[in-house]
Design goal:
Layout lengths: L1 H15 L8 H6 L3 E2 L2 H6 L6 H8 L2 E7 L8 E6 L3 E7 L2 E9 L1 E2 L11 E7 L2 E5 L1 H4 L2
Antiparallel strand pairs: 1-6, 2-3, 4-5, 5-7, 7-8
């Protein structure tokens, strides 16, 4: 009786561990996120001037490489820093939002908002960093 009960319990536990989906390496690879500008953004602090932030972030970032044919060398694919800018009215006055590419979630040639980090400058000083402030 104890052996039968043990077999039933072990069968139930082992059935719970079964994998029902087939692993697809191509699908798994396309879901990877490639982090960009991570080290540079870590050094950017509130209170820095716009020029100081530009010095840390650089004028462009390499997001990948283009291979035209087997004989040619790889050409870097670059995006300018900041990727885009926009004016912003705040209680502190007129500000500027600079959007920097921080990640590539889907290598589809489109830069979406979740791949950007907004930096908000008021009076030429970094006042806010991140989406929680840019959305307000």
């Amino acid at each position: 009786m104890q052996k039968v009960l043990l077999v039933i319990v072990l069968s139930v536990f082992s059935a719970g561990c079964a994998i029902t989906t087939v692993y697809d390496p191509v699908k798994a690879a396309t879901r990877q996120t490639y982090m960009l500008n991570e080290a540079s953004l870590a050094n950017v602090r509130l209170g820095m001037t716009q020029d100081q932030v530009h010095a840390f972030m650089g004028q462009s970032i390499i997001i990948g490489y283009s291979y035209q044919n087997a004989e040619s060398s790889a050409k870097p694919l670059t995006i300018t820093n900041p990727y885009k800018t926009a004016p912003l009215k705040t209680p502190k006055g007129d500000c500027v939002v600079e959007y920097y590419v921080t990640a590539v979630h889907q290598p589809d040639g489109v830069v979406s908002d979740d791949e950007l980090m907004p930096l908000i400058f008021c009076s030429n000083v970094l006042t806010y960093k991140g989406w929680e402030h840019a959305r307000q």
